[in-house]
Amino acid sequence: MNRYPLWKYAILVVALLIGVIYTLPNFFGEAPAVQVSAGKATVKVDTGTVTKVEEALAANSLQAALVQFDGNSVKARFNSTDDQLKARDALERAFNTDPANPSHVVALNLLPRTPAWLASLHAAPMYLGLDLRGGVHFMLQVDMAAALDRRVETLVGDLRTAMRDKGLRHGGLSRSGQQIEIRLREADTRQPVVNLLQDTFLDLLVAEATPGDDLVVRVSMRPEAARRVQEQALKQNITTLHNRINELGVAEPVIQQQGADRIVVQLPGVQDTAKAKDILGRTATLEVRMVDESAEGRAAERGTGPVPFGSERHLDREGRAVITKREAMLTGENLTDAQAGFDSQTQEAAVHLTLDAKGARVFRDVTRENVGKRMAILLFEKGKGEVVTAPVIRSEIGGGRVQISGQMSTVEANDTALLLRAGSLAAPMEIIEERTIGPSLGAENIEKGFNSVMWGFAVIVLFMCIYYALFGVFSSLALGLNLLLLVAVLSMLQATLTLPGIAAMALALGMAIDANVLINERVREELRNGASPQAAIHAGYEHAWATILDSNITTLIAGVALLAFGSGPVRGFAVVHCIGILTSMFSAVLFSRGLVNLWYGRQKRLKSVSIGTVWKPANDAVKTPAVKAD
């Protein structure tokens, strides 16, 4: 009756092993480290950077416990903070020979001390949030009016070009706020202009003509188009912030939208507020210029002559000089999309660009007039430009779709597309709130949070063991497995633990033991009703299951609602809460019953169970079998 087949015990053992393995990394702590990443859009960090880091450390008599390349940056781990600070200074001198123009970001970081055998099993600790690890918090206000102004300016240029191409004469275009005013020379031109607007410019809404004002057409952006522009600006700014914050080496940064025009940025582990603000406030602009192919320009590229008047000298990603004209043919405002792909003819890696109407017209004219010449695409950051690529123009390119190719790897194509697509902010931002949390406060929060969980666990175990005797011990072991599995699942998901998450852990303990209380009281009830010990155990678990399932499902629904509609700390609480409910159902029912079956199930003539005192009602005249009360 109360026996588990071998395969069920195998499942319980596997669950226990998984819980232990994936919980262990959280007990090894973190080691001080230094991270080296690209400080400019065109700087590449690869395995060669690892060698340079090792050589720089050896030259300064510093020994790193581990140097690793993770695909985007090189991280060197040390045994003490003193070595970490010395290594930071040594690597800063080695990689940034010109402090006024740094090419790399050398940042302090923390890396988990997880042993290699655990890391080989992909076991890693949970990330700690801002309130537990310390760091900086920023609230950024996005200037949506500027995003709309930029879009309207683009539409004015596109509209002027379209009217010229259609041969529609006008007396000038002007704008007032988000409204564009087109002055006509002849009343007969009004309807063709309106038709052009309705057929081509779907984002614009034509206002009704006012009496006596037939020579003016007023248009404005449709409300849904304005909302779309604002949403795209916010998304592009968030993407750009992600790219920039990667340079700081922040583990699990929080970058999320708050409201319609604000972005919250939380950087756990970052104490250098000035560097964080510098990275967030960077502006990057894209420009397309012609390369100076004159004799003087070629001499300047070789370094045998001065830069000609009207030209500038920039470096490409290989460090080679490129002399470009000062005049920008196109800017990033004309670029609507950039995606990596392949050349349809040569199957080489390429970058496909999409330009707006104005950019397409300018690019068509430029490429038609400069076939066989080089065109440079530059990315400007902090007033200094670097050449992303400088391809040769093979033929006239029209239609607004441009392809950049030529001895480019797939990785380089993806990187270039990312730089061109998200190299600059779609709208200006301003820091309206700034908050710094020190690591000492974070450590204090961790200590208080985990003390609350541990003391809560200890008091629950003490109560259960006193009140339910051996069944209380079984319930306590199941509760311990629940906590183990909860931490293991959070670690496997690489979740970020915050103070609300710790609160959810404490709540999960109380809810998990509630299921065992229901089971134990059901067993007691069956014993009071005269059932044999084996039958009481079986009936207690069977009858309590429906109640446990109902109560946990209703609580899970509330947790899912918090997860779906909450944000920030509320979502962190909801994640731990929902996982805790699922693990508690497994441990409280399956694991505790497995322990009871293992202890009592093979006793055929079981006469008593250790479940504490079985209280009988005072007016109960029915005699029940003797039950041992421990």
Estimated radius of gyration: 34 Å
Strand order of the largest sheet: 15-14-20-19-13-16
Helix/sheet category: alpha+beta
Helix content: 40-55%
What's the overall average pLDDT, rounded?
81
Q: How many H/I helices?
A: 16
| Residue windows where pLDDT falls under 50 for at least 5 positions | 620-630
Distance between the termini: 24 Å
Number of strands: 23
Instruction: Give the overall shape, derived from the CA principal axes.
Output: elongated
Strand content: 15-25%
Please describe the biggest sheet, giving its number of strands, its sense, and whether it closes into a barrel. Answer: 6 strands, mixed
Structure explained in plain terms:
This is Protein translocase subunit SecD. Part of the Sec protein translocase complex. Interacts with the SecYEG preprotein conducting channel. SecDF uses the proton motive force (PMF) to complete protein translocation after the ATP-dependent function of SecA. Its main location: membrane. Residues 428-599 form the Protein export membrane protein SecD/SecF C-terminal domain. There is one protein chain. With 630 residues, the chain is of the alpha+beta class. Helix content is 48%, strand content 21%. α1 (6-23) runs antiparallel to α13 (439-492). The protein is elongated. Residues 620-630 have low confidence and may be disordered.
